[in-house]
Amino acid sequence: MDVDLLRPGMIPIAPNTKLWFEFLIEPSLLEEHLNNPHADPSATELLIKFLYSSMERPKDLPLIDIDDLMDNSRIDKKIEYRKRKKYECLTIWAMKIVSFWEWDLNILQTRVPISLQIIFVQDLLDLVSNGMNLIDFESHISIEDLSQLKDEQIFAIALFHRWTLNVIINYTLSKKSSFTLGPVQDGNEDVLLKLEMQSELSEKSCNWFKGLTVSSAEFLSQIMYDYAKYKFFKAQYEEAGIYFKKCKKLNMNLTPSLFHKIKLEELNGFCAACSSEITEKSSLLMQFLYSTQTNHNKTDNQIMEIPMFLRDALELDLASMLSLGKFTASRDMLLHIHTMNAIRRASVTSGEIVLLPPEDYVTKIKFNLRGPEIFLKDIKLCTQIKDKKFRKNIKMFVCNVLLKCPKNLVKDILKDGHEEIHELFGDEDIHKLLTLPEDIPTINIDMSKRLDRLKITQINNVNVQKVLLKNKISIEYDSSNLRSLLQQLHKMDVDPMFSILDINYEWQVPLPLHSLLMGLPNGLFKFLVIILIAKSKEMIKLNDFERAKLLLREAETETKINNNIMYSKIRQLISWEGLYTEMLQFQYEFKNFAIGDLVERCKQCLEFVQSDNLIPRQEIAEQCVLTLLNVGEWEYLTKRHYNCFKLPLAIAYTCLDVNKFKGTKKSAKEVWDLILPVFDYGYSATNKRPLDGDPQCTQNRVLSQNDIMRVFLSLRDQNAIQIVLSLLAKIQNVLRDESAMELIMPFLNIWPVVPNNMSIPLRNITEVLGIVLTESLKYHPNHIILLKLKGDLQYVMGHYSSAMKWYLEAIVIVSDYFARPVLKPMIEDYVYKRMMKCCMQMQNFTQAAILCLFQEEIDYATAFKCASETNSCDALDEYYDYIWDISLLEFLIYWHTKLNHQEHRQKLLKTIGALELNANNNEEIKREAANIRKLKFLRALSQQYVHP
């Protein structure tokens, strides 16, 4: 039998078990309990219980909403809670547990849910506030002199900011790797976004040198380390390197302590990653990697530490850079690397087979005056290794090289005085090598007649070179290399009307830019800018936005050679294309994208839309409106009037209105009037007139389905997404006209009535709703409303197993992965009712019977009917242990007794005899027994439907 050790009233319990309220009665008990290596309950369980208990609802106050934790307008409400003695005592006990962990943030973040971490750090700030409003983040910025604060206040503020930076890093990494972070709800994701916005302010206002007034260098070192990690996470490596080096300097005079837990090897790794200096004591691999960033200086390998693929890459990189003139080195350096790589390949070959040296390597020795000398010098380094197998392989390698060399070169290598050769070969072997027959003479073939037969003329040769140059241009993305290739091609091309876009017919240049650039005379500037813009559009299709922005910046730089009005216009249009690319990147990456000044640039761009001079492309202006809509700039949008963007502006107006009236007012007529005609097939073409008098703007006409889908699939803001989905759900509900099959969504009451003369296909609405919902879940995978709507949609379509999957995913999020009871306001009765019907349709009648018990008013008639089904396809009696309702257990005992199922009857008798199900127990024991069984049952369902 399962017993929750943190909840009083559960029986039986072990004699050494402590109940959580005992620690409040006897203060000294907590320290004694935590020092016990086998403490039951554990420190983590106690901490979570204390924090949850501090949030329990008093009779005269409402429950604290997790979503309001970061809302500064409700600070007074939260402080009022903490003034209660009971809750303050619980908070202090939670602090003691974390202090037992030596305030280790790694332990806190990996063991405690994020929602409780927020409670903890805010409680800490409140406890040390001493009349100050430290919970409000803005109050930290206003503190000018840290020395005026008490020690505990400085500690709490520093811990809060360290926690903020660490939780942002760990949460982002947890979504990309197997790192385990506390369970996350969608509401907590919004809190994390707020924390990230605050962290940007912390960066701007924090002056670490004011921390010198603190006596402990450990404290300053830990803060610098966390701050440097955050800058490293944000890819600001130069600034991160500065603080890592300062932290490393402080660590030289520090010894490990309970608070100071910086791992030296991790710190050294960060310093190396930020291109810190490499010393002779650094590993050979680190020296090699650093050397590749500093023109390959002082790289060698005698202990076979560097992987072969890195050595091969070095050889190719050096050959390429030397040929392009990007790198200068001694003329023998490349041959040294060729030799060492050839020796390395031979030395690692297993068995008796040794890889033969390539023909081109022997050719390099032949035609380099110092080839034999370099070859012998590098062989000498290897002969110092005494391993017999290694020396045998090297001997065979040298022998193979000599067999491929000309006779005079062999004699030069084997002449007296070369100790390295005598160490490998004896006198007899050297004599055999010297007495080998002369080289086979080469045969010279006259190819002139064959070339004449192929009719290769000079014109054909030029065309071949042009094709090769165009192929190189199509795959080159470096502007300097492109310039060189275009110069060659321009000299070679006799056609003055040569179009650079003919190189690749997939390349596209926006029409306004194309028109301006085509008006320029043919030349290097024109061709290079066209190529850079076309390649940036190619990168956008591949979602490589960083490279696309780099290409556009290079194109914009090219336009700065001249300041006349034509070049200024081209530069402005290119700048808008860069903004467009960044907006697409924001839409694609969304929560992982740093917005920076994107909002202000969008507003500046929209100021040109209705100007009489240069205007941005309609796609760019529309994307600006969508970006502002997705960042919540609804009030700004509603104060503007753009004829071409009626749909996103109408959505922004509805978002603003819904937030103002909390969805109680029917005020969404504008969106409704724009969307409804799109799906009405009976709406004649003659009615599809412009909505106002401007025939030039296609957006002023009745929208097409492609128009609205482009807008719908670009939405990222949760409010805008919910409004669009509720509109589509409303239309579907009206068309289906079945109360039992309605889709449940917020804001359904804000929409007008569908006119009777409309002819809208239900299938079309359902398909669009499914596409928009699937796209929205990509960016909000933990949004409970969206998950439930996905389950509803699958349910009404008859996909019952899929509906169970989505309903259970919503329950997983609400319950913190079944760590706490499911909250009723989040998962309503209709969800359990539809889950029950799904199970009945799939003939999983035992599951359906238990789901009947989850409803506020238990449907015993359906539960008994399902329990008595004999053709159930689920696990039957395997679920009996999850039943907590005595009435259902008694019915099952009666039923199996009637059918003479003795095994089932005995199992039920054992279940109903459990001590925690005794009818005489108090209500708390009964409630906890039910909660435990509910969570176990839901976990079993999730293993079947969510993770089959």
From TrEMBL:
Its main location: nucleus. Keywords: Chromosome, Nucleus. It is found in: Chromosome; Nucleus. It holds the Pfam family TPR_INTS8. GO terms for biological process: snRNA 3'-end processing. One of its GO terms (cellular component) is chromosome. Residues 470-945 form the INTS8 TPR repeats domain. It comes from the Eukaryota. Belongs to the Integrator subunit 8 family. This is INTS8 TPR repeats domain-containing protein. It comes from Macrosiphum euphorbiae (potato aphid).
